[in-house]
Write a structure and sequence with these properties.
This protein has about 425 residues and is mainly β. The chain has two domains: about 30-110, Carboxypeptidase-like, regulatory domain (Immunoglobulin-like, Sandwich), CATH 2.60.40.1120; about 130-424, Beta Barrel (Maltoporin, Chain A), CATH 2.40.170. The chain has helices at about 1-30, 135-140, 145-150; strands spanning about 30-40, 50-55, 60-65, 70-75, 80-85, 95-100, 105-110, 130-135, 155-160, 165-170, 170-175, 175-180, 185, 205-215, 225-230, 240-250, 250-260, 265-280, 300-320, 320-335, 345-360, 365-380, 400-415, 420-424. It has a nine-stranded antiparallel sheet with strand order 16-17-18-19-20-21-22-23-24, with no helix packed on it. The chain has a five-stranded mixed sheet with strand order 8-14-15-12-13. Strand 5 and strand 6 (about 95-100) form a beta hairpin.
Length: about 425
């Protein structure tokens, strides 16, 4: 029986060996192109189509990038190739004269700039999974990022008022969900999360919001439940202006304006926005302010009044080197929180971010990204609008003036197939 088994193994090896030899010979005679496709701010782009073409070889070969924006085109005859990447909503980018050698691989890194409103865009597919584009956010009817993300599978919102919704991802919430805005962390000042991190920016600032749920690619500490990665707009080339007004139920009004100018090496952007609304009503028509202990004078007051202003500066002193500097200020005045015992009379946020990016055309070391930031939230919450204030001589019986400040830095580098980084 043993001899019979050995004969079968030898016969199988005799059949497989010539096939393996042929495959090995074919691999040695061809080469590959590997790389990553990035979007603005160094965010990887899944679902992009990458094509390799040459004037002397066979017809073009195409692949689609994976979850981390990576791709590999194998079986290429030695020679010079043009590698082109395209994705709906972005300008097509290509790398020319990419040399492919026998038995080796050439490494390419492609960055796709976003298509602006004055460009012609051809929509062929939906957004990559677990992401929301700026147009989707504006058209969603949501009042903030937390409410917009709650429309995605596995995400819920925690509502305490007409705005400032907190985020829960697959049962994880609060400090188990990390929120980054251009790589910077913002900590709300209220211990009861009256002002969660995702509240401290305006829709008009955003280019894209990406969600990496549990088990995903979470390149930030503290992400037990997931990572909400917010990417703000980058100015395009030339002069552009974007003015919009959104209106909705309960007298919601959100006018905003953004203007930008960009050249080959330098680009600037500035914007301003205001969001106001009356208190919303439930299905029976009862106002939320009528269901809490507000005084009669407050029942028909504004639910929130939030003004934001921001500016961005981008500078490329040399090829493959890029710096960006941004500052944003948000003033949230008289925000009502019927789900809590106090309201925010002021809630001011400052966010300063400095970033740097270096990229190469090939080799083991592919790119380096570094960010330094300082954020601050100054929050005065009080019960002066509630019946609980009574006849207190100060006009309130409960009050908290809380401030949070974060100074941080992070860096990561792509070395071969591994990303290495640190955060402090």
């Amino acid at each position: 029986m043993k001899a019979k088994y050995q004969k079968r193994v030898l016969a199988l090896c005799a059949l497989i060996l010539p096939v393996l030899t042929t495959i090995g010979t074919a691999d040695a005679a061809t080469g590959s192109v590997v790389g990553t496709v990035f979007g603005p701010g160094g965010v990887t782009l899944p679902g992009a189509t990458v094509t390799a073409t040459t004037d002397t070889g066979p017809s073009a070969m195409s692949v689609v990038t994976g979850d981390g924006g990576e791709f590999r085109i194998a079986g290429l005859e030695p020679g010079s190739y043009t590698i082109e990447a395209r994705l709906s909503g972005f300008h097509t980018t290509s790398a020319n004269e990419v040399l492919v050698d026998e038995g080796n691989f050439a490494r390419v890194q492609l960055e796709l700039p976003p298509a602006t409103f004055h460009d012609t865009m051809e929509v062929e597919s939906t957004s990559p999974p677990n992401s929301l584009e700026a147009t989707e956010l504006r058209e969603s009817g949501a009042r903030d990022v937390g409410e917009a993300l709650s429309r995605m599978s596995g995400v819920w919102k925690v509502r305490k008022g007409g705005i400032a919704n907190d985020i829960v991802v697959k049962g994880y919430g609060q400090d188990d969900v990390t929120v980054l805005i251009d790589g910077a962390r913002v900590a709300g000042a209220c211990p009861n999360r009256m002002d969660p991190p995702a509240f401290h920016l305006d829709f008009a600032e955003l280019d894209r919001v990406e969600l990496a749920p549990t088990g995903g690619n979470m390149a930030a500490q503290g992400s037990l439940g997931g990572l909400v990665n917010v990417i703000t707009k980058k100015p395009g080339s030339g002069l552009h202006a974007d003015v919009s007004v959104a209106a909705g139920s309960w007298n919601m009004l959100n006018p905003s304006a953004t203007i930008s100018y960009g050249s080959d090496r330098l680009a600037v952007l500035g914007g301003i926005s205001n969001r106001t609304s009356k208190a919303y009503a439930d299905g029976s028509g009862q106002l939320i302010t009528e269901q809490a202990n507000y005084t009669d004078a407050v029942v028909d007051a504004d639910a929130y009044d939030v003004t934001s202003a921001w500016t961005r500066l981008y500078w490329e002193p040399a090829d493959k080197h890029a710096f960006n500097l941004s500052y944003a200020h948000q003033a949230a005045d008289d925000v009502l929180y019927p789900g809590l015992l106090m309201d925010a009379l002021t809630d001011d946020t400052d966010r300063l971010v400095l970033g740097y990016r270096f990229s190469t055309d090939g080799g083991a070391f592919r790119s380096l990204r570094a960010t330094a930031y300082a954020t601050q939230v100054d929050h005065w919450m009080v019960d002066s609008l509630r019946t609980s204030a009574g006849s207190a001589p100060r006009g309130w019986s409960m009050g908290t003036n809380a401030t949070t400040r974060i100074i941080g830095t992070s860096a990561d580098a792509d070395v071969g197939p591994v990303t290495l980084g640190f955060e402090a």
